[in-house]
Specification:
Layout lengths: L14 H19 L2 H12 L3 H17 L1 H11 L1 H21 L3 H30 L4 H29 L2 H20 L32 H6 L1 H17 L1 H12 L4 H29 L1 H20 L4 H30 L4 H30 L3 H33 L5
Length: 421
């Protein structure tokens, strides 16, 4: 008889401690990275350069913190997530602090772009992979809580950074943020445990009896996964939508300032993405467990496209806040569901490695998107073109995933002997 247990002894199921650690790592990592829009004006003024040039800083960091997952994911499957998360938090803190000491834009590229990019990249995919192994029935919910740290970080970190800049200056603010991220992030990363079997448990806290023993992790090899039509479709969809996904994080505050919205209100508008994102990760992840994670993922693409349509028509603070809330809601759901869908489709044996490879699609989109949006503004003095391009890319991504998973469902019905409809 298989009994239920919250831990190997009594108390809270340890999987929730892993979720809490992942939440903290994503909060500090992405929360610090997404303060970039608050520093945008200070950096542009300090180095007397264009928006396109400044945007490259964020694009470079984004490329690395998603792209490095192709290394950190498989490495986490081999050596464990904890040492990578600790290293990542230390690099994040160093990158922020060195950005504050930079004397040229090139030094900012190296310090912020490389330091923050590598720091987030080494920690993000490994901690998400660890969370997936701890849960089965509530995987979407647990994954949503873990990545909701990104949303909470987007709510609290930009206003905190803005306040620091007012009290100190942008340089001292970066140094202080770096110190906090390194100290707190490193400590909480020590809570990460990769596998419930290490504590004599199955996913969700189910006890493992002596008869059962410790079952090996099941799942596809990395090669099998990346050759599958489902992975190829998911990769293509994420690549397309990622060209626009992170444009608001770099350009929403400058866009608001261009339309006469005060700096303090513009920062709050950016924070509204975090509010919506947090709600999306908590609630949409849980709902997806009930209604189907693959179908829910399609709704996330469609919802982000809808939000971009709202942005294209927005010129006032309340309109931009509405955009930010709607966009954050579906963006948060998208981020929460991607790792869970990967686990559903390919199993847990190489989940971190497969997630890491998938996130290279997001890396390439992030590298091109925010900097291209800045260049488009420099050429046209308008963000209309990148906003509409982002809308179209999300619609295309939804169509690709719908077709791929539709064909997979038809194929499964034929194989199982049931007629397809």
């Amino acid at each position: 008889m298989n009994s239920k247990s919250t831990s190997s002894g009594a108390g809270i199921f340890y999987g929730w401690y892993v979720v809490a650690a992942a939440f903290s790592v994503t909060l500090l990592g992405f929360g610090s990275a997404y303060t970039f829009s608050v520093f945008f004006e200070s950096l542009q003024r300090e180095f007397s350069t264009s928006r396109g040039s400044i945007s490259v800083v964020f694009s470079l960091a984004g490329f690395l913190y998603f792209g490095i997952g192709v290394i950190s994911g498989p490495l986490a499957d081999r050596i464990g997530s904890r040492p990578l998360a600790v290293t990542g938090m230390l690099l994040l803190g160093a990158g922020l602090a060195l950005a504050g000491a930079a004397r040229s834009l090139t030094e900012v590229y190296l310090a912020y772009g490389v330091g923050v990019g590598l720091g987030v990249g080494l920690s993000y995919v490994p901690v998400l992979g660890a969370v997936q192994r701890w849960f089965a029935r509530r995987r979407g919910f647990a994954s949503g809580i873990a990545v909701s740290g990104i949303g909470v970080g987007t709510v609290i970190m930009p206003p905190f950074a803005s306040w620091l800049i007012e009290v100190l200056d942008w340089r001292a603010s970066y140094v202080l943020l770096g110190g906090l991220a390194a100290a707190i992030g490193t400590g909480l990363s020590l809570l990460i445990v990769d596998d419930p079997r290490d504590r004599g448990l199955a996913p969700d806290g189910d006890a493992i009896t002596a008869r059962q023993g410790l079952p090996p992790l099941q799942g596809a090899s990395i090669g099998e996964a990346i050759r599958s039509p489902r992975f190829v479709a998911l990769y293509a969809a994420c690549l397309l939508c990622s060209f626009g996904v992170f444009v608001p994080f770099a350009h929403l505050v400058p866009y608001a300032l261009d339309h006469g919205i005060p700096q303090s209100s513009a920062v709050l508008v950016l924070g509204a993405i975090g509010v919506g994102s947090t709600a999306g990760r908590f609630f949409l992840g849980g709902l997806a467990d009930r209604f189907g994670r693959r179908a829910s993922l399609l709704m996330m693409f469609a919802g982000m496209a809808l939000a971009m349509g709202i942005w294209a028509l927005s010129t006032q603070a309340w309109q931009l806040s509405l955009f930010a809330l709607v966009y954050g809601l579906f963006y948060g759901g998208w981020v929460a569901l991607l790792p869970a869908v990967v686990m559903d489709d390919f199993g847990g044996r190489n989940v971190s490695g497969i997630i890491g490879i998938l996130y290279t699609s997001v890396a390439f989109g992030t590298l091109a998107g925010p900097s291209a949006a800045g260049l488009a503004f420099d050429l046209t003095q308008s963000y209309t073109l990148p906003i509409l391009a982002s809308l179209g890319a999300n619609i295309a991504g939804a169509c690709i995933v719908a077709v791929a998973y539709g064909f997979s469902a038809i194929r499964r019905k034929k194989v199982s002997g049931y007629p397809s409809k």
